[in-house]
Design goal:
Rossmann fold; six-stranded mixed sheet
C-alpha cells in the first residue's frame, strides 16, 4: 500500500468538493454494490458520495494541514457552455445534487468552509475558484483534487508572494506534485516527451490542442502529442498562452509547407479551446476572493447529529477518534465568520 506523502509545512488545502462527491458517488461499493442503493435509513437520501468524501477529508485532516477549504461548482451553466455548445452541461442530477447540498451544509461543522455552494459565483466551476484562491492566500497551498486541469497552477503562486507556492495532491494516487516534479509527470503521464522547459501553464496549452474528453473539448486534429512535443521545443519560454498557440500554428504552417503537406490542425479552434482550459484568464483573476475566507469552528455535536440523520453507523462507532483530526486543525477559540470576505 502506497504511503501518503507529507504535506508542505503550514499548508492550506484547497479541496475540489464537487470533484470529490462526483467521483466518489459513482464508485462501486464492496462486492460491486450499486452506489445509488446506499441511502439513509432515516431520510432516504443518497449517501455514498458523502461517505467517501468524509473519509477522504478525515484522511486529509490527519496529514495535519494548517487548514482545509472546500470549493464547489455553481449549479448554473457558465461561460464555457456559452463558448462551446458541446461543453459538458450541468446535468441537474438529483442524486449528486442532494449529496452536494448536504456536504455544503455540514462541512462547516468539521471546521471546513465551503466556497461556491451558495451561488456566490454563478456559472463558475470549483477549479476556477481554486485557481484564484491559490493566488489570494498567503503561504503554501495544496490543491487536493482528481481533476487534471488543476495541474496547470502548480508552482504558480502570486508574484508578490515569494514565500508562497502551489502544490497538487491526488488522494487516490497519493501523488504530490511540485514545481520540481511537475514537468516530468506531464511528460510521462500524458505522452508529451518534449525537451522544452515546461511548467504548469503549458498544460492548458496541451489540453487546448489535444482535447479533454471529460469536458468534451475536442482535439484540433492534424497534430498528436509527439508532434506537439517537437513543436514546443521551438517556442520562446516567455510567451503567454495565447501567443504560444499562435506560435505553434506558425511552426505547423512552416513545417507543412517545407514538406509540401496541407495543414490539418484547426488552430483557431485551439485558441477557443484555450479559453475553456486556461485557469488563469481574466475570468478567474476577476473573481472576488481575497485571503479572508471564513474559518468555522468545528461543531462536534452538530456533526454527530448529521451522521445520525444519515445513519452512518460506522462513523458513529468510532466517532471521537474519527472527528479528532478536524478539531486539531485550529485553536478551539476561533469563532465562525458568517460570510465569505470579498475584495
Amino acid at each position: 500500500m502506497k504511503i501518503a506523502p507529507a504535506l508542505p509545512p503550514s499548508s492550506t488545502c484547497l479541496v475540489d468538493l464537487t470533484g470529490f462527491v462526483r467521483r466518489l458517488a459513482s464508485t462501486p461499493g464492496p462486492h460491486g454494490m450499486n452506489p445509488k442503493a446506499v441511502t439513509s435509513k432515516k431520510t432516504g437520501e443518497p449517501t455514498w458520495g458523502l461517505v467517501g468524501a468524509f473519509n477522504q477529508l478525515n484522511t486529509l485532516a490527519k496529514m495535519k494541514p494548517a487548514r482545509i477549504i472546500a470549493f464547489a461548482d455553481s449549479s448554473q451553466n457558465g461561460f464555457r457552455q456559452q463558448l462551446l455548445d458541446t461543453y459538458k452541461k450541468k446535468c441537474g442530477s438529483t442524486y449528486l445534487g442532494r449529496q452536494m447540498a448536504r456536504a455544503a451544509q455540514c462541512l462547516p461543522f468539521m471546521g471546513i468552509p465551503v466556497i461556491g455552494a451558495k451561488e456566490e459565483f454563478p456559472g463558475m466551476e470549483a477549479e476556477d475558484l481554486i485557481s484564484k484562491a491559490a493566488l489570494a492566500l498567503d503561504g503554501n497551498t495544496v490543491v487536493v483534487a482528481y481533476d487534471k486541469d488543476l495541474l496547470q497552477i502548480v508552482g504558480q503562486p502570486a508574484k508578490d508572494k515569494p514565500k508562497s507556492d502551489v502544490f497538487y495532491y491526488n488522494p487516490q494516487k497519493k501523488l504530490l506534485l511540485t514545481r520540481q516534479n511537475l514537468a516530468s509527470h506531464i511528460r510521462a503521464d500524458y505522452s508529451f516527451p518534449t525537451r522544452a522547459d515546461i511548467s504548469g501553464p503549458d498544460f492548458a496549452v496541451y489540453l487546448a490542442v489535444t482535447g479533454d474528453t471529460i469536458d468534451n473539448v475536442k482535439a484540433i486534429g492534424g497534430i498528436g502529442q509527439i508532434t506537439l512535443a517537437k513543436y514546443y521545443e521551438q517556442l520562446p519560454a516567455w510567451l503567454s498562452n495565447p501567443e504560444k498557440i499562435e506560435a505553434l500554428a506558425k511552426i505547423d504552417q512552416e513545417t507543412k509547407a517545407a514538406g509540401n503537406k496541407n495543414i490539418a490542425a484547426d488552430w483557431k479552434k485551439a485558441l477557443l479551446n484555450l479559453q475553456l482550459t486556461d485557469l488563469r484568464t481574466s475570468r478567474q483573476l476577476g473573481l472576488a476572493i481575497d485571503g479572508n475566507i471564513p474559518q468555522p469552528q468545528p461543531d462536534k455535536e452538530a456533526f454527530r447529529q448529521v451522521l445520525e440523520d444519515l445513519t452512518m453507523g460506522s462513523f458513529l462507532q468510532q466517532y471521537d477518534s474519527w472527528f479528532a483530526p478536524f478539531e486539531a486543525l485550529q485553536p478551539a477559540s476561533l469563532t465562525e465568520s458568517p460570510d465569505l470576505c470579498v475584495c
